[in-house]
Amino acid sequence: MLVSAFGSALAIILASLVLGRAICTACGGPGRWWAAPAVGFAALMILAGAAIKLPGKATSSEVVCAAALAAAAAYLAWSAWRRRARPRLPLGDLVVGGVGDLVVGGAALAGASIPFVASGRVGPGVGIDNDMAVHLMVAEALRSASYERIWNVLSSGYPTGPHSVVATLGTASGEQLISAFAGLMIAVVVLTALTAANVLAGHALWRRVVVGVMSSLTYLVASYYGEGAFKETIMAALLLAFVLHLEQVRKLWATASPFLRWRLLIPAGLLVAGALYAYSYAGVAWFAATLGVWTVVEVALRPALIRGWISRRRLLQAAPWAAAGVVLGFLILLPIAGSVAHFFSSFSVSSTNGIPKNDLGNLITALPPHQALGVWWSGDFRKLPNNLFLAGELSAVALAVFLFGVVWSLRRRELLLPAAAAGAFLIWLYSERTQSPYVAAKALVIGAPLVMAIALRALLTRGERRPSTRALALVAGAALVVPAAYSTFDELRNAPVQAPEAGRELVAFHRTTGNAGVLFLGIDDWAVWDLHNSPVATLSAGSDSIGGVATRPNKGFGEQELDFDSVVPADLDKFRWVITTNTKFASQAPANFRLVAQKRLYQLWERTGPTVPFSILDGVGQPGAILDCHTRFGRRLRSARGQATLMPTPIAVPGVDLAPGQSGVVGLPLPRGRWKISLQYLSTVPLKVAAQRGHWTMPAFMGRVGGIFGVGEVTGGGARLPVILSLYAQHPSRLSGSLKYTDILSVEATRVPDTRRMVPLREACGKYVDWYRLT
Q1: Residues 6 or more apart whose Cβ sits within 8 Å of residue 192
Q2: To which H or E segment does residue 704 belong?
Q3: Where are the alpha helices (DSSP H) in 436-526?
Q4: Are strands 673-682 and 687-691 parallel, antiparallel or unpaired?
Q5: pLDDT of res. 89
Q6: In the prediction, which pLDDT does 126 show?
Q7: Residue 85 confidence (pLDDT)
Q8: Is residue 543 classed as helix, strand or coil in its secondary structure?
Q9: Which helix (H) or strand (E) holds 736?
Q10: CA–CA distance, 93 with 90 (Å, rounded to integer)
Q11: What pLDDT does 251 receive?
Q12: What is the pLDDT of residues 214-231, one digit of tens each?
């Protein structure tokens, strides 16, 4: 996956650079356009997002994108040849931007690779935010009509520009979509760095590297990148590019002809359109807020501008170009007009229609606004730093540097970056008061690169400063960059990266089940994707499901183990195949199910006939329960005719939480005999387990709380001689984080061999009952 993910990233980066440079070169202006990398990525989303709606879906998109890239490369070659006698940039610089861009991009790529080096595997983030499983389903539905018929994930009008790029790339390269998505996320970081480096265009390379990398991987952006979120990082890149493009255009505006002026605005329009493809209509708010704040400040500083803008001559000159711009915008947005309208009908101007105001999503509490300053010494952006006093001091320094950058910009009439930051702050302020904290946090992420860019531009710009002033600026810059860089590094090295073992097992089962319906009795949001051509029914509230399966009222689901007893018997007959976790700490499979395959985490069952109805006692989170015949219900069962299946009472004790490299012990008071040990755990790293003479390794598992998995067998020695279970969370690399992402919630023990036996109900009193049947 390493090669395919980074290969996908390289393909997206090169395609974006070629398209962006070709578009910006065709629009006139200087040889080097600051926003070209992001403009190219926006164009790529627009092309893929529009073409994938044609007959042929991803194949059509592949053809359209390939043709556009070929045309862009040919245009760049022709343009370089036509200007060969003039002192313009050569073709290599037009496409790549020279050695400087290679250094900036390489530094950003190294930063983006930290989660993969730290975890020892490559993939999108997961665990904190499992939405990537749904995004993969959307991408698959974009290229497969049959898949869309099963899951219907495109009907909501959700913006699918990034998904279209992934589906197109996956179809063209033959790589798995999960690798293409990882490549997309890496590519966005690199393209943002290449764009942000132009905040200090013309300055020393080391200064451009600092501002590029620190803006593209500022703390909150790195946090969302680490958890596998990509819409916010894309929006941050597009907004920063929009601002830098307008700054560049503003310097050319006075001497440009009306025709050239409108050409110069085309890349800005593509960036806004790209936001619509990536973030739907809500994405326009940041661009509108930027222009609104900028206009107000410009008019306040130079009132004569307004009279020039609204003069009759200017309006007549602008009319045909404005009309042409409207037509072009209509053509670009026509393919997604229906989706945007449908999305708007669901959410309107407030996301509270879909996300309640008190819904924290994956957050623990609302994010404080000063996290956007880039200094937050916590490996998990949702949690407070351990040293709050130090965190407050560092945030105060970052705030002072940012405010200095704002004053510096205002004094030099460099108003666009501060206007964009102010607009992002206003959107956050509105969201914080009217929307869910989960929604408000997105506004902080989108505005965070602007904050870093403003501060670093003021400190690292070389100009008229005296040597002593330059030294002071560098010291202040270090006071911001060093703690900000450490904040980002700590977040990235603690970022949870999807563990592949559970998915590989389910993919192997899919080879047996084919595309038949499957009942998944596990708790893993990725299972539906891993079984991705099968209609899958799940019981976990966080997972997609074809539905049609009812749980028993007295064994409902709430972060507990699922097994055959969790489902109404009649609904078991709707499926030929059932997947459960591989543990003895579970109810007995009905007699009409046979075990087909068994792996480390899961096992596959096949139904061979109809399920005979049976009943269970109240056993939430347990395989069964003790029949208490002193209760009214128990007395009624004791006098009824029927049979009960008994099993030895299982034992469960609390577990421990571990960070990578840490170990812990759990004592199990087990009666004499052989026992099968199981763990209910979540872990970003493999887990080593040892007891008596046995040694086992459990793979990293990053589903949801509730799944219980078998480990190995031990021999009980009585309550006075508890079995000591040693647990060690592996340390994948020197970069591995220190957060406790290994949660062993409980340790279970079940007697082996399985001695379940059937007895008359009257003999089941005081015994542990798995299930019973009245006759």
Answers
A1: 38, 108, 215, 216, 221, 233, 236, 237, 240, 449
A2: none
A3: 437-460, 467-493, 501-513
A4: unpaired
A5: 47
A6: 63
A7: 47
A8: coil
A9: none
A10: 5
A11: 83
A12: 999 999 999 999 988 999
Q: Which residues of 629-667 are buried (b: 16+ CB within 10 A; e: fewer)?
A: beeeebeebbeeeebbbbbbebbbeebbbbbbeeeeebe
Q: What's the chain's Rg over C-alpha atoms?
A: 30
Q: Which pLDDT belongs to residue 97?
A: 58
Element (H, E) at 309: helix 304-309
Predicted local confidence at residue 313, as pLDDT: 62
With CA atoms as reference, report the closest residue to 302 among 188, 459, 413.
413
Q: How far is CA 577 from the centre of its chain?
A: 31
Question: Whole-angstrom Cα distance, residue 433 to residue 440?
Answer: 9
CA distance 187 to 169: 13
pLDDT at 309: 56
Q: How many residues does the chain have?
A: 775
DSSP-derived letter for residue 565 is G
pLDDT at 84: 62
- The residue among 349, 619, 380 whose CA lies nearest residue 493 is 380
- The residues pairing with 680 across neighbouring beta strands, listed in sequence order, are 708, 746
Helix %, strand %, coil % of the chain (to 5): 55, 15, 35
User: Using CA atoms, how far apart are residues 414 and 400, in angstroms rounded to an integer?
Assistant: 19
Nearest to 386 by CA among 377, 398, 395: 377
pLDDT for the residue 14: 95
Indicate the helix (H) or strand (E) that contains 772: strand 768-774
Rounded to 5 degrees, φ, ψ at 551 are -90, 155
In the chain, which stretches have pLDDT less than 70? 29-31, 83-97, 126-128, 303-330, 337-338, 340, 342-354, 463-466, 468, 555-559, 619
Q: Tell the burial category of 318 from Cβ atoms under 10 Å away from its Cβ (0-12, 13-18, 19+).
A: middle
- The number of C-alpha atoms within 13 Å of 74 and in the hemisphere containing its C-beta is 6
Angle at which helices 437-460 and 416-434 cross, to 10°: 160
Backbone angles phi, psi at 531, to 5 degrees: -100, 40
Beta bridge partners of 715: 674
DSSP 410: H
Q: How does strand 663-668 pair with strand 694-698?
A: unpaired
Cα–Cα distance, 502 to 510 (Å, whole number): 13
Which residues fall within 8 angstroms of residue 326, CB to CB, at 6 or more apart?
Answer: none
Closest CA to 584 of 632, 640, 659, 648: 648
Please report the pLDDT score of residue 472 as a whole number.
85
Q: Are 539 and 557 in contact (CB under 8 A)?
A: yes
Burial of 673 from C-beta contacts in 10 A (0-12 / 13-18 / 19+): middle
What are the tokens at 657? 């939480």
The span from the first CA to the last CA of the chain, in angstroms, equals 56
**Which DSSP symbol is given to 158?**
-
Residue 555, classed as helix, strand or coil, is helix
For residue 476, what are the contacts with CB-CB under 8 A and spacing of at least 6?
A: 401, 404, 459
3 state SS of 335: helix
Beta-carbon neighbour count of residue 684 at 10 Å?
29
